[in-house]
Design a protein that fits this description.
about 280 residues, mainly alpha, 14 helices
Length: about 280
């Protein structure tokens, strides 16, 4: 029976080879070869693409991307944790509605959601018209770093709320009642019981927000006006505008390594080893 069931995994293994392993191999191959390699017979291996990445110009872009992604992740955690807690403590009849409202924006394409914020933050947008209506001066909000962070927080906040909500809703109510019986006030109960038990969800949320935030390119392009290039914009420019697939692939490999290292570090804080960030 065991030998028969393994055949059901073959389609998934084939899918992984075609859509994960093979593309990853191509990216790695481009990153360690020269642009003049136009076939297997003329292939030339080089480390120049990785050496070029350590130019201060590109290192500054990398650090700026990590900084903006980290700021967005922290804001998502500060906003998402209370929201997830409120949803998990709501009545069962209201819980489904609150979750539906949380994930409703995700049904719309991220590009459209970002365009919508351009109409809100623009110089003639909804917010500036409201400011003018109540007698306040217009504020230049669009094409700033603040607009980029706000766009990332808005787009990735559900990825923080959902795993934290899952961890909180799975919490054993008997443990909370035991904390009450032992005389713990609300602050002590949250600090020593609720928050530690919800850490797997928090870690999953941090990883799920940080990963897309550090590599996004649409949001900085539309809301930031490309004034502060992020690593995603650099990769897009190298592939589409410059046609330098080799250097772009090398940066992609570096980003993959950074994300894997980040996930392994976060996994060390997952005491229950239940978080989605666990790789090894």
């Amino acid at each position: 029976m065991k030998n028969r069931t393994k055949y059901f995994s073959y389609p998934y293994q084939l899918w992984m080879i075609i859509f994960i392993v093979f593309p990853s191999f191509l990216v790695l191959l481009y990153s360690i070869t020269t642009k003049q390699s136009n076939g297997l017979t003329t292939i030339q291996f080089t480390a120049e693409n990785f050496r070029k990445f350590f130019d201060p110009l590109y290192i500054n872009i990398l650090w700026d991307s990590i900084f903006l992604a980290a700021v967005s992740t922290v804001i998502c955690l500060l906003l998402g944790y209370p929201a997830a807690y409120i949803i998990s403590r709501a009545d069962l009849s209201k819980r489904s509605t609150l979750l539906f409202l949380c994930i409703l924006p995700m049904w719309m394409n991220m590009l459209l959601r970002t365009y919508a914020w351009m109409t809100i933050l623009g110089n003639n947008g909804i917010l500036n018209n409201f400011f003018e209506l109540i007698g306040l001066p217009r504020v230049n909000m669009l094409y700033t770093r603040g607009a980029t962070v706000m766009g990332m927080v808005y787009n990735f906040l559900p990825f923080m709320i959902l795993p934290v909500y899952t961890a909180l809703s799975k919490m054993d109510s008997g443990i909370l009642e035991a904390a009450d019986d032992l005389g713990a006030n609300k602050y002590i109960k949250f600090r020593k019981v609720i928050f530690p038990l919800s850490m797997p969800g928090v870690i999953s949320g941090i990883v799920m927000v940080f990963m897309p935030a550090v590599s996004t390119f649409i949001i900085p392009q539309l809301l930031g006006g490309n004034k502060n290039m992020m690593i995603g914009n650099l990769i897009e420019k190298l592939f589409i505008l410059n046609g330098d697939w080799n250097f772009g692939s090398a940066i992609s490999i570096v980003m993959m390594l950074i994300i894997l290292i980040s996930m392994s570090i976060m996994n060390r804080f997952d005491v229950d080893k239940e978080g989605g960030a666990r790789l090894w």
